[in-house]
Structure formats: C-alpha cells, structure tokens
Write a structure and sequence with these properties.
The protein has 269 residues and is mostly helical. Helices cover 48% and strands 11% of the residues.
Length: 269
C-alpha cells in the first residue's frame, strides 16, 4: 500500500503545485465575491461559511465517501470505522466497495487505516497527517468546511499556500485542481468587517481556474464534510431514525397518562 500512496502523492504534488508556482505570473484576476453593508468596505465573511450538513442524505454520504477515498485516504485514516460498516450504512454494494473504495490489499472487515511511512510524511509535510475520525466532533463541521475552502496562495510557506481557518497549515491545497488557485487580498489591520476571529479578507482573486465551478466545488466540499460527520459517529443514522419513534411513543404515552390521571381524579373530586 505504501507504493500506491507514494505514487498518488507524487501525482498530487506535480498536478497541484504547478499552478501555485505560476502564481506570480497569473495575478491578473477576477474578484470572487464580497459585498459590503452601507458605506463600509466590502469583506469576505468567510467565518460565516456553513457546511449545512444533512446527515440523512444517503446520496450525499455516498459521494462524500468517494471524495474521501480519492482525495483524503492516501494520507488520513478513519481508525474507528470499518469499510463494511460504512458500506452497510450508506447502501454501497459490495462489488462497488471492493472496486472503488477498498485500498490494495485491504479487506471489507478492516478499519480505514493508512499505511503512511512516517519518514515520508515528515519529509513532505513536517509531521504525520492526523487521523480524521473525530475531527468534525472536536472542531465542528463548519470549521472543516471553512478549512477546505480556505486555502490561498502564500509564497512564504513551504507548500506555497496558507489557510484562513488554520494559519500555517502543513497540509498543501490538495483540492486546488478542483477549486482552482486563489489569492487572498487582506484588509488593513483593524479594519471593520471581520468577526469570529481570523484575518479580514477584502476579496479573493483567481490565480488559476479549477476543474469545478464554485457552486460544484461547494457541493463537493459539503458532501465530503457530510461523510466525515457521519464517520465521527456512524450510529447517528440509526439514532436519528430511532429518535422519531421515541418522540412519537412519548407523545402517545403522555396522552394515555393524562387520560388515566383524569379518570383517577374524577373520584377524588
């Protein structure tokens, strides 16, 4: 599996860093978005970006599982989730699981682990990529969504990118071939319009276009975050379904209890 990981990461580095290295030559961009209020300068309220997860959307979870397998699983594990549990919960047929989602040599009963050589990880990223099993539970789905949308060109870093949600992130912009490459134009220090912490961004400028439109990339990220939210607590699918029946039972039980109380107290009165 390590050979496969090395090959895939090598492809990533060539395809993803190429547009970044061309960034200084391509900074004649189109503004990507931001409206001001009243007479205030325009700002991008990236802290307000919301994942809007729908954990009951099975099609979204299936797409998110494919996204994770193709773009995240080479480096990040989900050590508390088995492949066969994921396939059962998300309605993925066994043949598609084996063909598209299982790494070479893995079995459906295996946990979603990554055999990433530590030496390679430290050489490429400076640290071993973390397990993402509980990332949405510890940081929140909105944080992960903002992180995956928050990469911008920064020539001062080793990866030539930086991140709004996690400044100095060791992870490169692995989704830049989909989103494209953008430069963040920051407001002057102390400018009005920023909230929720983090830098104040006046606008984004497109350096290199990606293969997806902004709307399709947003949908891609939402599906991925939706799947990661499921992976953090697979039982929530069953818990949510069971919760509806529990609430209905309590409502019916409350009605019978009230009728019984009225019958007993009729004699007292």
């Amino acid at each position: 599996m390590s050979t496969r990981i090395t090959r895939r990461l090598g492809v990533f580095s060539v395809r993803l860093l190429a547009p970044l290295l061309l960034a200084p030559l391509m900074l004649a961009p189109a503004a990507m978005a931001a409206e001001g209020h009243g007479g205030e300068p325009a700002h991008v309220n990236w802290q307000d970006w919301k994942a809007n997860n729908q954990i009951g959307d099975q099609a979204s979870l299936q797409r998110g599982a494919a996204n994770f397998a193709n773009y995240c699983a080479s480096c990040h594990s989900l050590k508390y989730l088995r492949y066969e549990r994921m396939a059962k919960d998300l309605g993925i047929p066994d043949d598609l699981l084996r063909k598209n989602l299982l790494p070479d040599g893995a079995k459906p009963t295996d946990y979603m682990m990554v055999n990433f050589p530590k030496a390679d990880a430290e050489a490429w990223f400076g640290k071993l990529p973390p397990d993402l099993s509980l990332i949405t539970r510890s940081k929140g789905s909105d944080y992960v969504y903002q992180f995956l949308k928050g990469f911008y060109v920064d020539q001062s870093t080793a990866t030539k990118t930086n991140n709004l949600a996690l400044p100095g992130a060791a992870m490169p912009a692995v989704l830049s071939e989909l989103e494209g490459v953008k430069r963040a134009v920051f407001a002057e220090q102390g400018a009005v319009g920023g909230h929720g912490g983090g830098p104040v961004v006046e606008r984004f400028e497109v350096v290199a276009a990606g293969s997806l439109s902004p709307e399709k990339y947003d949908a891609f990220v939402r599906d991925t975050v939706n799947f990661m939210s499921y992976a953090g607590e697979p039982s929530q699918l069953q818990r949510n379904d069971l919760g509806i029946w529990v609430v209905l039972f309590l409502l019916v039980f409350t009605g019978f209890a009230w009728l019984l109380k009225r019958e007993y107290w009729r004699d007292v009165h």
